[in-house]
Design a protein that fits this description.
This protein is mainly alpha-helical and about 425 residues long. It folds into 2 domains: about 200 residues, Up-down Bundle (Growth Hormone, Chain: A); about 200 residues, MFS general substrate transporter like domains (Growth Hormone, Chain: A, Up-down Bundle), CATH 1.20.1250. It is built from 16 helices and 2 strands. It has a two-stranded antiparallel ribbon. Helix 5 runs antiparallel to helix 11.
């Protein structure tokens, strides 16, 4: 199957592109890039929290680093989404990951100089890299068929597992390496993040050619008049006009919000009940495995069982997870291990199926705008969810937070039935 196009890339004219070959190449590049960029995010997260603590001399505002990173991810969804609408995936993803390299370097300088505002600026740029890494899953869908779209997206999420698991294990060694250079030990994690973000950007820029969005016809980089980027509100309106894209949008936001709210407060809940950092880390590792390692299964279920049905399964899994965590008042490991694992698995089902459904339920010329709007909403939900969770736990308790997540996941299940019903009644 071939699609004839013509555009200039570094003065080389591409007249004919085999879409199957271009898709396979894009998937290979995106898998490697996802491994590298997710490793960068995982390497920077723990040292960012420790860096804030050292800069302020207190744990009270340690969450500022997460807030700054979340802001950067939201900006990436908005700015890079608009940029990719005009120029394509390759330059957009490469630029976002490259900006994160600068962010990691800024963080190192800020740590050494003791400058909190500069550190937060650096974390915003690191957050842009994290958001860019998340957005790369959509590039896997540009040339995918309906029969494989979810599996292709799931494979990108799956390959992030390797970076997420391996990179944090190098932080201790790199901390000592940083000290040998006369730097603060927390700089080690950011050195690794800068390296991995840089490699990920280079991989995208030099090897994801031809651009999958260009090949799919979603953008013409050589158009004499560049099309205007669709504003966020207009992109949301486009998504809301179709029952299935509306469901996908809601599924992505709810899956993320429920996961972040409960996950973010679990370490604090466990610490308050006397668990060691080793056990806390083990529970979070089980959660991470649920998020990333089973993404291929989520993809196969979505392609074979159905997008809407998999979103319902995501709701069921998230309800099961929050039932377990709501019962974990004394933080027993027997409840938190399966609870956090299912929390990650439910997120994986929701994100993989929601991403595929969103991609195929809007016109190809609107896809990038709607995808960017969805990711921006997801990041806002993450920030609000994490902030709200702290107040809920301190004021009412971890079990009440879990019940809130349970209700949101249950509402998503009901919404899935409602929107699927509307879609079935809509004239073809």
């Amino acid at each position: 199957m071939k699609r004839l196009i013509g555009y200039q890339t570094d003065a080389i004219e591409i007249e004919g592109v085999d879409t199957l070959s271009a898709h396979r190449r894009a998937l290979s590049v995106l898998r490697l890039s996802s491994t590298l960029s997710r490793g960068a995010v995982s390497a920077s997260f723990p040292v960012a929290v420790l860096g804030i603590k050292d800069l302020l001399g207190s744990e009270t505002w340690a969450g500022l680093s997460t807030g700054a990173s979340t802001l950067g991810s939201a900006l990436a969804a908005a700015w890079l989404g608009a940029y990719m609408q005009r120029r394509g995936r390759t330059p957009g993803l490469a630029f976002g990951l490259g900006l994160a390299v600068l962010g990691a370097i800024v963080c190192i300088v800020a740590i050494e100089a003791g400058l909190l505002p500069v550190f937060l600026l650096g974390m915003v740029m690191v957050g842009v890299g994290a958001g860019t890494s998340n957005m790369s899953r959509y590039a896997a869908a540009d040339l995918a068929t309906d029969a494989t779209r979810s599996r292709d997206i799931g494979s990108i999420v799956f390959f992030a597992t390797f970076g997420a698991v391996l990179a944090p294990n190098l932080i201790g060694v790199l901390g000592r390496f940083a000290e040998s250079l006369g730097l603060d030990s927390n700089a080690g994690g950011f050195l690794l993040a800068a390296l991995l973000f840089g490699l990920s950007s280079v991989v995208i820029w030099f090897f994801m050619r031809p651009d999958p969005l260009v090949v799919s016809g979603g953008v013409d980089p050589n158009a004499s008049v560049k099309k205007q980027a669709v504003p966020f509100t207009e992109a949301v309106r486009i998504a809301w006009a179709n029952p299935l894209s509306r469901l996908a949008f809601v599924a992505l936001v709810v899956s993320q919000a429920v996961m972040v709210m409960v996950m973010a407060m679990t370490p604090l809940h466990m610490e308050d009940h006397g668990h060691s950092k080793g056990w806390i880390g083990a529970v979070i590792s089980a959660h991470t495995a649920g998020m990333f390692a089973f993404a291929p299964i989520a993809g196969r279920l979505s392609d074979g069982f159905g997008r809407v049905q998999t979103i319902v399964l995501a709701g069921i899994t998230l309800v099961g997870a929050t039932v377990l965590t709501s019962l974990a008042g004394e933080a027993p490991r027997a409840l938190l291990f399966p609870g956090l694992f299912l929390l990650g698995l439910g997120w994986s089902f929701g994100v993989v199926a929601g991403s595929a459904l969103l991609t195929e339920s809007v016109d190809e010329h609107d896809r990038v705008a709607v995808q960017g709007a969805a990711d921006m909403a997801v990041n806002v939900a993450s920030g609000v969810g994490a902030l709200t969770a702290g107040f809920v736990v301190s004021g009412a308790g971890y079990h009440i937070l879990s019940i809130m997540g349970m209700l949101a996941a249950g509402a998503m299940m009901v919404h899935s039935w409602f929107e699927n019903r509307l879609a079935s009644l809509k004239p073809a």
